[in-house]
Design a protein that fits this description.
The protein has helices at 6-12, 27-46, 58-72, 76-79, 95-103, 106-112, 133-141, 151-167, 233-242, 282-286, 301-304, 332-342, 370-381, and strands spanning 145-147, 172-174, 191-194, 197-209, 215-223, 227-229, 247-249, 270-277, 291-297, 319-327, 352-353, 359-360, 365-367, 388-391, 396-399. By secondary structure, it is an alpha+beta fold. The strands form 4 sheets. The protein has a 7-stranded antiparallel β-sheet with strand order 1-6-5-4-3-7-2. A hairpin with a 3-residue loop joins strand 5 (215-223) and strand 6. It is elongated and about 90 Å long. The N and C termini lie far apart (104 Å).
C-alpha cells in the first residue's frame, strides 16, 4: 500500500491545505484581471452582459469591446478561468460584434467622451485604461456616486460658499493630518474640499459599529458637480488623509477664530458648547436660567452629551444645548482653560453623587448669564479675551486690572 503524503494525511483529517502563494503578477496581468472584474461588476449591477450599439452607454460599449478582447487573449484561460463564474470565456463572439470590436478600442471610445487618451504601446491587448485591482479598491473607497435628484436645494449653498470664500466671510483651512483629527470631527452641514471638489455633509446616519468595534456612520454627501454618495464616515476620513490638498471650509462670520496660520500644537477643529441643566437639584432649579456649562469638545455635541443623566460632569441629568460655536486652528485644551479662567469667579460650587454614591464636584458649570458668554465669544473673535475677566457683581466682562 503506497505511503500517504502529508497532504493526503491532512486531507483525511479534514484539514485544508493552504495552497502555495502564487508569484506576484506583472502589471499587465493585474490590469487584465482588473478589467475582467469591472465587466463582472457591470453584469452584477445590470443583470446582463455589456453590448454594442449607438443607443448604449459609452462605458457599456467600452466593456463590450474589452470583453471580446479578453476572450481572445491566450493567457485568459490561466488568468481568468477561475474567476469566470458567469461563463464569459465559454461564450461565442458573433462576426458583427467582432467587426465593431476591431473598430472601437478604448482610445476611440474615450475620444467620443472628449477624453484624450495618453500615447501607449501599440498592442491593443494592453488594456491601457484599466486600473489595477489596488487602484480599483482605492477608488471604490470614495463611495459610489449617483445623480443628486434634489440638487436644486443644495446648488445655492455651493454658490454661497464660493461667494463667501471670495469675500473673506469663510476661510479654507488645510486639513492637517497630524492634528489629532478623528472621525468625530466630521459634522452635519460641514463643507470640505476633497480631491478638488467641494463636498457638503448633508446627513450623518445612525451610529454603526465598524468591524474593529469602533464608531462609524453612513453619510449623505452632496458634491458640487450634482452627484451624491452614501459613503461611510471612516471611508471619507481615509480619503481626506490620502488627499494632500484636502481643506476644511469654515462657517461664515467666524472671524479670527478661523485663522489660516496654525501653530504646531493647534487642533484641526472643535466646538465650544453652552449647556443648561434639567437637574432637579435645588440650587440648579432655583437658578436654572443663569447656570451654564461651558466646554470645548472635538466631537459632535450630540455625542458629547449622550448619557448625560449618568454622568456627574452633567449633574446626573439631561441637558439642553443653548449654543455652539465651531473652531478651527485653535488648541482646544488651552481655549477651554482660558474660558474657565475668565469665568472662574462665577464657578458653581455644587456637589453631586455619581451612580456609586461617590461625591463629585463638577468644574465646568458657572453662574453666568448667557449674554456674558456671548460677549466672551466675541472677545475670542477679536483675540482680546485674554485681557478680560468676569465680575459677578455686575454680571459682565471687565478688562483685567494691570499694575
Amino acid at each position: 500500500m503506497p505511503e500517504s503524503t502529508d497532504e493526503k494525511l491532512l486531507a483525511d483529517l479534514g484539514i485544508e491545505v493552504e495552497p502555495e502563494q502564487q508569484a506576484a503578477r506583472s502589471p499587465r496581468e493585474e490590469r487584465i484581471i482588473a478589467g475582467f472584474e469591472e465587466i463582472q461588476r457591470f453584469v452584477e449591477e445590470n443583470g446582463r452582459s455589456p453590448t454594442h450599439g449607438d443607443d448604449k452607454d459609452i462605458f457599456e460599449r467600452l466593456y463590450a469591446v474589452r470583453l471580446e478582447r479578453l476572450c481572445r487573449l491566450d493567457e485568459s484561460d490561466t488568468l481568468l478561468k477561475l474567476l469566470d463564474h458567469q461563463g464569459f470565456l465559454a461564450g461565442e463572439i458573433t462576426a458583427s460584434e467582432t467587426d465593431e470590436a476591431e473598430e472601437l478600442d478604448d482610445a476611440a471610445l474615450l475620444a467620443e467622451l472628449g477624453i484624450d487618451a495618453a500615447p501607449a504601446e501599440d498592442d491593443i491587448e494592453n488594456l491601457r485604461h484599466v486600473k489595477t485591482r489596488a487602484e480599483v479598491r482605492a477608488a471604490e473607497e470614495v463611495g459610489k456616486r449617483k445623480p443628486c435628484e434634489d440638487f436644486e436645494i443644495y446648488k445655492p449653498l455651493f454658490a454661497g460658499v464660493v461667494k463667501d470664500i471670495k469675500s473673506g466671510n469663510r476661510r479654507t483651512i488645510a486639513f492637517r493630518k497630524n492634528a489629532g483629527f478623528t472621525k468625530t470631527d466630521i459634522k452635519e452641514k460641514q463643507f470640505i474640499i476633497l480631491e478638488g471638489q467641494t463636498c457638503f455633509i448633508a446627513e450623518i446616519g445612525e451610529p454603526l459599529t465598524a468591524p474593529n468595534g469602533e464608531y462609524d456612520a453612513r453619510l449623505r454627501v452632496i458634491y458640487d458637480n450634482g452627484t451624491e454618495s452614501d459613503i461611510l464616515l471612516r471611508t471619507l476620513i481615509r480619503a481626506m488623509y490620502r488627499d494632500d490638498a484636502c481643506r476644511l471650509i469654515s462657517d461664515p462670520e467666524t472671524g479670527p477664530l478661523f485663522g489660516s496660520d496654525a501653530a504646531a500644537d493647534d487642533q484641526a477643529s472643535g466646538i465650544i458648547y453652552v449647556l443648561r441643566s434639567k437637574s432637579d437639584h435645588p440650587v440648579v432649579a432655583a437658578n436654572r436660567d443663569i447656570i451654564h456649562k461651558i466646554g470645548v469638545t472635538n466631537s459632535s455635541v450630540k455625542q458629547r452629551i449622550a448619557g448625560a443623566r449618568l454622568d456627574p460632569t452633567f449633574l446626573m441629568a439631561d441637558v439642553e444645548v443653548v449654543a455652539t460655536y465651531e473652531l478651527f486652528n485653535i488648541n482646544r485644551t488651552k481655549l477651554e482653560t482660558l474660558l474657565h479662567r475668565v469665568f472662574a469667579a462665577a464657578q458653581l460650587d455644587i456637589e453631586i453623587e455619581d451612580r456609586f454614591g461617590k461625591p463629585i464636584k463638577p468644574r465646568e458649570w458657572f453662574l453666568v448669564p448667557f449674554n456674558a458668554i456671548e460677549t466672551a465669544v466675541d472677545r475670542l473673535k477679536d483675540r482680546s479675551l485674554v485681557n478680560y475677566v468676569y465680575e459677578p457683581e455686575i454680571a459682565q466682562l471687565k478688562l483685567r486690572k494691570t499694575d
